[in-house]
């Protein structure tokens, strides 16, 4: 029975109702109607339908009808798109004839529909086309001819007198939708992958015939009314020539390649009229700005990825001269006044295009005579301090830092397309110019050289550095005085020359820093804008600083990080850039002579307010991780000092980022302190005594912090559960008696933590390692100081509901079960190993027996469920899952059999149990890979197989499996005896083996070095490179498949057997 259209229309209108009950009822009704035949066709019809206006009706009534119709159409199109996304790939949901009719109706509606639902239906069409046209199905062969006919008979292409039925924009959006998936077709495992036949078909039958129409639109003067159509064609052309990778084998359809010259001509014609002289912020100008941006992106793609192709069809020198002329014209207009953000992106792309051109041989010959002009008229204009920079500084300091003092500038390169702002793109271009050969520089050079000498140096030596030296140091820091504005750009320029400075002598860089950078720190009055740039510059040059300058740089940065606000201007960017530069310096293995001044400065910044605290806490984490033993002695002082600031933001943090960074710093401090534990010495007991006193300080401080975060708050703990687990683990590790446990409220803290990890959903983030470590510490703590609510939680007192909360053990069991069911391979190994520990952790509790039954049920169900999802019971990840069930079976075999009897997908309730038994026998086999290797694994295998043999031997239907279990039992028993004997003798043989290994490794390294020297003498050909690239990709693909099922994740740690090992006979 079909859904009544009127009823569905009413439901769709109700989904936009302000009444929650009515909206929920309508949503539920629509969801229940999805299974009815014709549901999708009805939604599509409503999406395209119109309610006719009544001529004699009042104007407000017609407007109401139009608004109602628009709301209804949008709701229908949205439901239609989501329905297709969820069900189009499911053939049983939408069957053969219905599928074909629906996609044909969708195409027909899409080509005619109004703009109100155009984007929604285009997305719905893309879903269908991606599956039926370009996906594995490839059953929509008539789509390209249909779209060709639609364009030919559309309103902007066909003869107007014939009243064309289709809309050109709609047809072009459909063409763009079927072209877009092919930008990702690159297969790295194939050395020379051909262009897909479907992309060739689209290019030949749809894109190339569109050029005449594209040319006609390009020739229109001013801002054409059909700029949106022009933009769609430009996007589609860009998609067709775009390649996912920058490898040599870039892809371009042959049909496009044959007419590439005329396409480039029209793209350059559009760039002829780029306007960045005045602000363009009107809505009707938006599409033209996007067209210009897309044209520059097309040029970047052609220069960066298709030089080999374009050289065959286009005069390369002439092409790059045109591209250079257009991009130079644009960047020369990089003026001081504010412009629209899209215009800034256009200027940024023009700089990127010049960097692209410069990376090519002909491009360098073309640009090198113009380096001086580019530097003076374009690059410097983009770098100088503008009024907008001052406004950004005052309005949004974080945005100012992101745009102007980026921490991710990386090395300058002509192939980057992620710089986004004119200033960053200009800095990148400057870096590329500085490392280029100078060539024949146009215009006079500051230093006279003999004819031809400048060809041997770089443009950085002969042009950039002399040019920057023209700008004098400011005499004071007055904000908009001319020398300050230009020196602001000079400091940014030095920061972009990192690669150039690396090629120079240490004395040269030292001279530049002493004469051009350090004086900035002594200006009176100071300039915060110049100080922030100087800090950033020193951070960028941290990798190449001379050794004798690192201490002065360190001192200058500390003084900048402690600078206070002056002149009614916030100095936070100064302090933030200094903190980032200090972090960069420490990451380059710089060790300060004295660590305490840095740590004092960090603590002072943390206490200065939330804004400064964020950067200071990040620096603290870096300092502790790089300082190691040097910083460890100050950990108790730091923990106490940072705690007070964090407590101000808890339990309801006004700035969650400060709390998260603070917890991260505390976790780093805990790691640092634990790693600095001194050895026990009878001669000098002072170090261990001091360390134990520090442990007490950390323990008490961490307890206060977690109590405020977790116990004092009615809400759930903060999101930084990974770092909180490190803190909790450190707390319980350094608590040894019940009185401290009660005073520090450890049991309550562990309860809250266990309840939080029970709902863990961050397996993809690989942040679970700290949780596992904390769990092991808590289990060990429970053995020392039994927790009353470890196995069973107390029932809350009235008026709370008489439903007991989760116990600590239940929370940990839920986390471990989730790890076995859905975690990535390494976490699954850890979860399985910890499950053995949990099974034996209840021995100190009176409720242990009931708790073990609960654990056995949960672990068996989780492990077997994950086993059935693997491709085979013989893959590496199957091993820990099989052993989990084995450990459960050794303790409670009847419960395991009962759980497995309902876990199977067949009518035979014994089949899952027999599947596991056979898998266990196979795992214990001597030839199994992976097999039982460790002594504890062999012990567990022997115990489990003994029970299995006893269970299966008397059943005639399982004799074969019983025999296999018996054979594996005998093998495992022999290997267990051998392992016990080997472990005793291993200590005596280690020394001799190490000596032999060292000798052999030295000989081997010499042989490898000789072979590498021979290989370096011969350059790799293009074909060899592509084949090596493909071979590496194939290896990585195989490793990814193997890693997904645990091929390299076994940690080699013993599994916990509790008292069970005593049952093993001494062989």
Give a brief description:
The protein is mostly helical and 1067 residues long.
Chart the SSEs and their pairings.
Elements: H1 5-14, H2 20-33, H3 39-48, H4 59-87, H5 96-112, H6 118-132, H7 143-152, H8 168-179, H9 197-207, H10 211-218, H11 227-241, H12 254-258, H13 260-271, H14 286-305, H15 307-313, H16 316-331, H17 341-358, H18 361-367, H19 371-383, H20 387-395, H21 397-404, H22 422-434, H23 459-468, H24 482-495, H25 498-502, H26 506-517, H27 528-540, H28 547-561, H29 572-587, H30 596-606, H31 610-627, H32 629-632, H33 635-648, H34 656-675, H35 686-711, H36 721-733, H37 738-743, H38 746-757, H39 769-784, H40 808-822, H41 825-839, H42 848-869, H43 878-891, H44 893-901, H45 911-924, H46 935-952, H47 959-1016, H48 1022-1044
Helix pairs in contact: 1-2, 3-4, 3-5, 4-6, 5-6, 5-8, 6-8, 7-9, 8-11, 10-13, 11-14, 13-14, 14-17, 16-17, 16-18, 17-18, 17-22, 19-22, 19-23, 20-21, 22-23, 24-27, 27-29, 28-29, 29-31, 30-31, 31-34, 33-34, 33-35, 34-36, 35-36, 35-38, 36-38, 36-39, 38-40, 39-41, 40-41, 40-42, 41-42, 41-43, ...
